[in-house]
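Slide 14.
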Amino acid sequence: MTAMSGGASAPAATGSVEGECRMTIDEARDDFSRLHRTFTFHLGVAVGLSWLTALTAAFYAPWVRNIRALIDPSAGLDRVESTVSYLFALPAVLALAWVSVYFGREALRRAQTLSNVAVEFAAAALVAFGVFYLSIDRAVAALYASF
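Slide 15: predicted structure.
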């Protein structure tokens, strides 16, 4: 027990060391903190998988100025995109989003637009999954262009 300024004492927090600021997901005080921790963890896993797949594809894919012409020869001449931008643009967007979510927790809490936090995180998860899916799809397409 710790002494407070009025001479009264307050019980120490259960489940954690006194003075420690970290909390587990079970000790989260509100829905936002719990959902933010879960979303940040899963977005981090998606970023790691996205970069791993892009690096694997970069090892095998041809390094050309216009990879779209190799992937789809009938429609590959309308837009020119190099192998670097084709493989690494979406993993970079995911990494930037992950860093923004991780360090901008309180800004996200204040910028809440919907009344239900779960719906807001579900919408963010759908967008993140869409970018993740496109990133993996591009890497697999580049892998198929190499064989």
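Speaker note: The helical segments are 31-60, 68-71, 83-103, 105-110, 117-146.
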